[in-house]
Amino acid sequence: MAKVESILIRECGWTPERFTREIQRSRRRSQRIQSIQTHKITDFFPTVRRSLSSFTVSCGIDAQKHSRREWAALQRLRTNAKLYEKTEVAVEDSKVCAKSNGTHRRGVKRVLAEESFSCTISKCRRVEDSPNSGTSLDMLAVQTTTVTTENDDQVLVDALPYLDTEYNDADRQTALRLIDQECKIFRPTKNYLKHLPVPDFDVFLTPCMLKEQARMSKKQEMSKLDMSRCELPCPSGTSRAGDKVQWRKAIKNAKAQNEHLVTRQINLELMEEYAAESYLRRNRELEQLCTEAERELRRTKEQVMEIHARRKMAQLDAGRQLRELEGSWVAMVTNNYRMELANNQMAVANAQMAKRLRLDPAALGQLN
């Protein structure tokens, strides 16, 4: 443990007296923090506030019993993990380049990892030595979330309507803001068609239609149908009784009327013989068209419902995976807190034992 203490003192840049003070302060803080309310878990874990389970709550209760120093340690671990991932990628690229040149460099990963660890330690020192180091964990979480949001240039629309059932005012304001931005793209005015040529509205008008429009604009009555050609008058009167011209005209009119009636009779006979079957066939064709349209509509609705079902299953599966990942994340965070608490308790116990045995930790470190 003396070696571990010496490493911590060297990496954190503390003196042995400050290290002892930090251990005692952590112990007093651990005893005092037992009275924190359970509802503070939403401040520590903002990403799981909508899907808290009993396991998450129990883990969160254990996690919230620790102070700002443990939260800073967690942030250091996260930053170190991200830097280590980037380091691995850089090392792989350097290895490929070195192999292509025939000079494989070993130990690069170790050097870069140590540099990233040193960079992480320096960042953590700046956080601890900052004047705002007395802020609480919930303020640190809010600041981290704010920085992430401000750095995003675009809004990622990742709505899960079958999974997300609770929306707050901030989500509603975001949606309204997106709608306003979309509406600003096109704002129609009274003369928004001024860039188009004036249409020719009279292009499809015939002379008969123009004549009728002129009559309607003057509010004149429409000429009635002339029924005189359907009448069959005979010459009457003494003056026309012996007029052969008038009688020939009447006979000609009678023959025309007779031909017209004969044509109507032929049409009626043909209709009586063939119209029924023709109308029935037409009705069957219309029924077939209607049936095909209904079948196509039903098939389209089934496809839409199938798409909705697939989307719902995909979102529910994604929600299950998210809950599992969040649960594992909370478990790992809790385990990290527990391990650090155990390390601190062991360090305190070792310090007390060294004090009781009147041993110098620095001297033991030099002996090791």
Task: Outline the structure in words.
Its main location: nucleus. Pfam families: BCAS2. This is Pre-mRNA-splicing factor SPF27. This protein has 368 residues and is mainly alpha-helical. The chain is 70% helix and 0% strand. The protein contains 11 helices and no strands. It is rod-shaped, with a radius of gyration of 47 Å. It starts with a helix and ends with a helix.
Work out the helicity level.
over 70%
Percentage beta strand: under 5%
Ends apart, CA distance between termini: 10 Å
Q: What summary fits the major beta sheet?
A: none
Number of distinct helices = 11
The secondary-structure element order is: HHHHHHHHHHH
What is the global morphology? Answer: rod-shaped
Structural topology:
Layout: H1 2-12, H2 16-32, H3 41-44, H4 54-63, H5 68-101, H6 108-129, H7 137-151, H8 169-183, H9 207-217, H10 244-356, H11 361-367
Task: Give me some keywords for this one.
0% strand; mainly alpha; mRNA processing; mRNA splicing; 368 residues; SPF27; coiled coil
Tell me briefly what this model is.
The chain is mostly helical.
